[in-house]
Amino acid sequence: MAGKAVALIVLLVIIGGGAFYFTQYKESSMPVACTAEAMQCPDGSYVGRSGPNCQFVCPTATTTATSTGGTAGGGILPYHSGIRGTVMAGPTCPVEKNPPDPACADKPLATTVAVFRKGNPVTPFAITKSDASGAFEFSIPPGDYVVGAGESALPRCTQTSVSVGPNGYTTIMVECDTGIR
């Protein structure tokens, strides 16, 4: 009878140790998958959930010097480099004519703009909105990035590759197809 009690205690210790291992150790070593929610930060940029606790982390509100000596608010950190650009949508008329009709020229698009590191096309490095004139700006560290824009199926915007140097801002244009033919 004493042998059965010892065997039962050993079995309970093994089961308890296994349960502890899988709930404490295994969960902490597994990658975390955060939901695809976004939050607008006080500086106007948008961030997704990140980190082991899937928290929203807004950039610190700083002002960074630009290559022209002005300032650019809403930067992630005080980088002296980044991306400036314009989002344009076209065609805007159902039939294009030759010579082109100035009223049918591509129009600026206010939409969401996201920057991804070249090697990570899934997790945005930074998100903002282009204004009514289609303009946007990111203060980001030097590196290779891909810029995407748009919020739905149309207009369909091209992804634009860009290299950011250590000083100054790289200027790009993101073109979006309205689907008008």
The residue-averaged pLDDT reads: 78
CATH superfamily of the largest domain: Immunoglobulins
CATH architecture of the largest domain: Sandwich
Indicate the low-confidence ranges by residue numbers: 61-76
Q: What name does CATH use for the topology of the largest domain? A: Immunoglobulin-like
Count of discrete structural domains: 2
* Estimated share of beta-strand residues: 35-45%
- Radius of gyration over C-alpha positions, nearest whole angstrom: 25 Å
Give the overall shape, derived from the CA principal axes. Answer: elongated
User: End-to-end span in angstroms?
Assistant: 87 Å
Number of helices: 1
Helix percent reads 10-25%
Structural class: alpha+beta
Order of helices and strands: HEEEEEEEEEEEEEE
Largest sheet: 5 strands, mixed
Instruction: Quickly name the level 1 CATH class of the largest domain.
Output: Mainly Beta
Number of strands: 14
Short description:
The protein is α+β, with helices and mostly antiparallel strands.
Structural features, described:
It is a single chain. The strands form four sheets. Strands 6, 7, 10, 12 and 14 form a five-stranded mixed beta sheet that branches. This protein has a four-stranded antiparallel beta sheet with strand order 9-8-11-13, with no helix packed on it. The protein is an alpha+beta fold and 181 residues long. The protein has one helix at residues 2-29, and strands at 38-40, 46-50, 55-56, 62-65, 71-75, 81-90, 107-108, 112-117, 124-129, 135-139, 143-149, 156-157, 160-164, 168-177. The protein has two domains: 1-30; 38-177, Immunoglobulin-like, CATH 2.60.40.
